[in-house]
Structures are given as structure tokens and as C-alpha cells.
Amino acid sequence: MKEIFDFLKSKSLTLTEIRSPNKQDWKGSPFNKPKAFSVSLLSIKILGFEKSLNEKEYRLIHAVNRKNEERTIWVEIDKTLFQKPKFIFKEDKIRKGKKGKYVITKFENCPACNFELNKQDNICPDCGLHFT
Questions:
Q1: Smallest Cα–Cα separation from 28: which of 92, 90, 75?
Q2: How far apart are the C-alpha atoms of 54 and 76, rounded to whole Å?
Q3: DSSP label of 110
Q4: Distance between CA atoms of 79 and 86, rounded to whole angstroms?
Q5: Helix, strand or coil for residue 10?
Q6: Contact of 12 with 63, CB cutoff 8 Å
Q7: pLDDT digit string, tens, across residues 2-55
Q8: What is the maximal distance between C-alpha atoms in the chain?
Q9: Residue 79 near residue 40 (C-beta atoms within 8 A)
Q10: pLDDT tens-digit series, residues 69-95
């Protein structure tokens, strides 16, 4: 967990919540949803418990910046037996859509000019950026 707090500190973010993603969250995830059931040929028994040599966990971090703007960050935690876990952070605010276009998933201000938007705006009234 120290890695998560260090990441937030480096981005000047304040933690509001850490949780596991639900079914709805996976629809907009920057990571591929893990399979509900998997078989591993590589496992080991430790103290009578069977343990896979490699596991991945996912968490959603909700945080706010200095302007009190919300940020959602996905974390993939890659756990390999006998190694330090690897953390991969991806912000959910802007993700790549079809044909290389960027899709804005959550916004209060235009990402191009920072103009304050209404939730129903599909085009920024200030700079003309289109939202899909």
C-alpha cells in the first residue's frame, strides 16, 4: 500500500477511497477484466495452502487534487511469488477509444482550455472541442 500513497503524493492527490472494481466499473476499465475462473499449472503449497506463482489484483482509487477535482485511478497489482509486487497505475479520466481517438469519460472542465462545462455539453462552448 505504500506504493499507492507514494503515487498519490507524487501527483499531489488526496485519497478519498480505495475499493475493488465492480461489474459496472469494468466497462470503462483501462485494463482487461480478469476471467472469473482460471486454471494454473504452476502452483505451490505453503503451510498447507495452495498458492499460485503469479496473481493479479485490481483496485480503484478515488482521490481529489488541490482544486478538489475528483480523479479515478486504476491499479493493477501483479504479485509474483518471492518477488516484490509490481504496481501499474492508469488514470480513468481519459482513455483511448476506437481508432485512436481519446474518449473523455468524466469531466467538469474542458481538458483543452479548462472552461467550466455543463454535464449535457457535447462541445466546449469556449474552444469547440468535441466530446463523445
A1: 92
A2: 13
A3: -
A4: 7
A5: helix
A6: no
A7: 888 888 999 899 999 999 998 888 887 888 888 776 555 565 555 666 556 668
A8: 63
A9: no
A10: 888 899 998 887 777 888 889 986 544
